[in-house]
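If you are new to this repository, start here. Below is one unmodified record pulled from the training split, so you can see the exact layout before writing a loader.
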Amino acid sequence: MLTLDMVYSASYKLKEVIRKTDIIPAPKLSDKCEVYLKTENLQVTGSFKVRGAYYKISQLSDAEKARGVIACSAGNHAQGVALAAAKNGIKSLICLPDAAPISKIEATRSYGADICLVDGVYDDAYAKAISLRDEKGYTFIHPFDDEYVIAGQGTIGLELLEQLPEADAVVVPVGGGGLISGVAFTLKKLKPEIKVYGVQAAGAPSMEQSLAHGKIERLSSVSTIADGIKVMEPGTHTFELCKEYVDGIVTVTDDEISSAILALMEQHKLIAEGAGAVPVAAVMFDKIPEIEGKKVICLVSGGNIDVTILSRVIERGLLKSGRTCLLNIELIDKPGQLKGVSDIIASLGGNVISVHHERANEGADINGCYLRIILETRNHEHIAQIRNALTEAGFVLK
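And here is the target side for that same chain:
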């Protein structure tokens, strides 16, 4: 049974290994509420996961420690378990999905863990870990559905109330539900009037769907850039805790997540992975109810994003926020057409970064050609201004 005493015990124990991450104001993220960021992306191992993993491993018996531990993870829990095991002088084996970012795999290995890559997603890695546990006698460290792990994550709730006691709402990422279960339980026990909202990726809404239908449900598939919360089925403990203590779960799209990652980079010089950025996306795109004029904390849960993914996310975020624009323009193939287009774009402050010009293909006007331009722009209003000016000048946009 999860208790506040367990959370306080975890908080005391974790002083050996974690850092107390800052809460920073983020006034530009929303004009409707006061936003603050709990920067767990700056935690040891780059994620909150070390809290639950370390507390769980610290509570193992000597016999359990001697057998070693096994875990499954999309990446962050893996690093938390690997570090915690190393600190306690015990062996760890981590099962990861083979599609996990290379940076997370190598980081896990660097903390001293042995790695077992599994074909598929998190749930496939989980099945493999359970099989190896039964075969080899390892102690399994569940990434979310364990009350000691949940208590460790709940220590964030203690820090939130200490750092910003006047907070009205906290917005938390949700995958399997370990983080929000611990945070919501702790906050509601100590400040019952505070609101706690969860955020899932639209492509992996397992907890949101389960709560809506009143029972644990397993998704047939998951698809999102937020690999840290790409979970098909919530846990038994986490489902019950969320049902009792969480005020609501919303979802955000991959485009919205990309925009949030970009905003955190540009405005606050913070690198967040997809899972860590979902609370910010929910606030930016007005997904959270009844927070106008309130003090709202977004829990940025991790920053372990692979740099190759980051480059694609930035490109997607720029498109979503109107910072880049693709124009396809049908032209008459005669001198001066390209200059005319360029003059209009330049006069309105657009910056051309790519141009592709080709003659029309079969079936089009014999004197026609097409111009494909990629622009840097300020926002969607700026794009509309440029498109309208080109149309008024007689150019045909496709």
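Two things worth knowing about this chain: The first helix runs from residue 4 to 14. The chain is about 45% helix and 20% strand.
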